[in-house]
Amino acid sequence: DKFNKYDRIEESKFIFGRETYFEVKRKMIKGDAQKIVKDTGEKLYKNICSNLDKSVKIVNKNITYEPGESYKVKVQVTAEENIAVSDAEPK
């Protein structure tokens, strides 16, 4: 393995599948916990949105965190995408 700690993302379309590995990096940041959580959540949200298609409509975003010795920030995005195929054929 290239990374000590990583996240694995699985994508599958029809019979093809793809796995992507991202290194998880830990940073120690000192300061106001609430401000750091808010800033980190917004950075993660922008990163998620940059990977979405322009036609995707964001319905809700939820930023949560787990306090402790270190904070774990989670961002959940609920989105809608029209994946319907038009029956009309161009003439």
Give a description of the structure.
This protein is α+β, with helices and mostly antiparallel strands and 91 residues long. It has one domain (6-80). It has one helix and four strands; from the N terminus they run ββαββ. The chain has one helix spanning 33-50; strands spanning 6-13, 16-23, 57-66, 72-80. Strands 1-2 form a two-stranded antiparallel sheet. A two-stranded antiparallel ribbon has the order 3-4. Strand 1 and strand 2 (16-23) form a beta hairpin. The chain is flat, with a radius of gyration of 18 Å.
Summarize the structure.
With about 90 residues, the chain is α+β, with helices and mostly antiparallel strands.
Descriptive tags:
91 residues; two-stranded antiparallel sheet
Mean pLDDT: 83
Evaluate the radius of gyration: 18 Å
CA-CA gap between termini: 53 Å
DSSP helical segment count: 1
Helices and strands in order, then pairings?
Elements lengths: L5 E8 L2 E8 L9 H18 L6 E10 L5 E9 L11
Antiparallel strand pairs: 1-2, 3-4
